[in-house]
Amino acid sequence: MIVIGRRDRAGRAAGKRRKVGRRVDERGTGRALCAIPLGALVLAMNIGSADAATGFLSGMKVTGDLRAYDFARLYSGLPPSQHAFAAGGAINVLSGAVDGFSAAASFYSAHSLGLNNRNTALVDGTLAGYGRIDTFGQAFLQYHARGVLVRAGDQLLNTPWMNPSDARLVPATYQGLFAAVHPVPSLTVSALRITRYKSRTSDGFSNTDLYNAAGSVNVGGTGGLPGGTEPGAAAVGANYHIAGLKTAAWGYEFFNLAKMAYVEGSYTFAGTHGIAPLIGAQYVRETGSGAQELGRVDATVYGAVMGVEHGPDLVTVGYNDLPAHPGAFGNGDVVSPYTTGYATDPLYTTSMIQGMIDRKTSGHAVKVAATAFFFRRQLRVIAGYARYFNTVYAGYGASHTDETDVDLTYFLKGQLKGLSLRDRIGVAYNLPVLQRFIYNRIMVEYDF
User: Fold this and answer.
1) pTM assigned to the model
2) Residues 6+ away with beta carbon under 8 Å from 181
3) Distance separating alpha carbons of residues 411 and 401, to the nearest angstrom
4) CATH for 35-447?
5) Of the residues 2, 218, 266, 344, which has the fewest C-beta atoms closer than 10 A?
6) What is the rounded CA–CA span in Å between residue 399 and residue 392?
7) Percentage helix, strand, coil for the chain under 3-state DSSP, each rounded to 5
8) Measuring CA to CA, how many Å separate 23 from each of 31, 35, 426?
9) CA distance readout (Å), 131 to 126, 201, 385, 395
10) Model confidence over 377-424: pLDDT tens digits?
């Protein structure tokens, strides 16, 4: 099936091999060690692989999904608790390919249907903004042939630090150029340059990122640069996958903010009796770029993960260390313009509600996570516990925070194949201002 980037939003890949050391997002697609760089290749090759010479119209493919969400945010601290409902979905249209050239478009929609409180302070604005979202999040032309992909226009990206953050009804998309080549088996080299960004709560592209979040703009970001504009970002990356070894290296420049180097690798041993041990590591180094609009940037992250796979089932223990750099942005925190506030970065200890990046402080963290399937893989259970040990300074006052997550998804079969029911519950403790935070997300989705 040819798709345009949202294939597994409710966990259609439930029967596939799990990726290492990461949570599963709203789509149920589990992202992990090198999984996002590899996902970029899979996405590119899937989108670009319409049957050659079928003709633009005769080879056209249409896919999509329908989705309904009920969100509840319950706080014990000062802010009022919030609730929201929204319904919507996506329609993806991909033309056939002629001499390697094709075109694609995706229309995304999210509507509250007038069912939410009129007082926006009591509404979770990350589902449908504060009313509705209707947008062409993707509209691009591409060439894909002979191991080369070049795409220009509005598109999904699937790299570690620039990704769809697809945990609501509308994914984040990017405007610019993307290219990938496959020079030798198991190796993919990619490059991109984006000039404008559309967050998951925006219905149009703009020269912003999640540090420009303010009011109803880029809801869910952490803010810090309200009202400003940014010139975008560029990145180059390479990933190599052979047998149990997966490695990836990426370099990013977030213009006027930061330059980042990111390296990740994992190895899954053959094991015995269907039990396969795994190990992995990751490293981030970041310094300032251009005007450094968020201030001096000096950040380093070390990470390690170990675990065991048994078929689709997985248990991991992940660790990250983010040393303090007093006087730097966030006391040494990583500048991440396209994941901050969304908790969609690739660190091993990122959870549903929080991660190390979103807090704007340094420290270290540990996370235990497990994924298991039951009833012939119709029921997926994901559970995790993380503790974050934080550096207390003027910008952050909690010495530690905790989070427990439970995620249940039931995949229907037969005449109802494509329909899934899901409930995600997260409980975070000791957060500044919010104190205890309970997050409950009930979802119904149908993929076609």
Assistant:
1) 0.89
2) 147, 148, 149, 188, 189, 190
3) 33
4) 2.40.160.10
5) 2
6) 6
7) 5, 50, 45
8) 7, 12, 12
9) 10, 10, 34, 33
10) 999 999 999 999 999 998 898 999 999 999 999 999 999 999 999 999
